[in-house]
Amino acid sequence: MPRLDVTVDAAGSTLGRMRTEVGELGVLIEGLASRYDFVIVDAPATRNSFVALRLAPVVDGSILVVRAEHTRAPVASHTRDQILDAGGDMLGAVVTGRRFHIPRAIYRWL
Questions:
Q1: Which of 28, 69, 87, 93 could cross-link with 57 by S-S, CB 3.0 to 4.6 Å?
Q2: 77 vs 98, 99, 106, CA distance in Å?
Q3: By C-alpha distance, which of 29, 32, 27 is closest to 59?
Q4: Residue 49's closest CA among 10, 78, 20, 86?
Q5: How confident is the model at residue 11, as a pLDDT?
Q6: What span, in angstroms and rounded, lies between the C-alpha atoms of 74 and 56?
Q7: Is the overall model pTM greater than 0.85, yes or no?
Q8: Pairing between strand 90-96 and 62-67?
Q9: C-alpha–C-alpha distance, residues 49 and 54, integer Å
């Protein structure tokens, strides 16, 4: 895809280093934003890493990705609260892995 650059392992980069000051993270994100229309950071789950919480106050917003039938509602709510408490803004949530246990015809009827 033209004009698309991808980098991986935010946790292993400057974004994920605990010694990187939050102000430096803001400067880094601003620098990326000046070169790109969109900057998307795929951060690890907050239970495994601090990256998402450190980035929360310096990005425009966060989108919580939860897995259907795997992520419990209290865990998702707690993660949302952590991001908000860290100074972040929640843009919404995405549910992945949804399965349809009832036949489609019944879903349409409902």
A1: 87
A2: 19, 22, 30
A3: 29
A4: 10
A5: 64
A6: 20
A7: no
A8: parallel
A9: 10
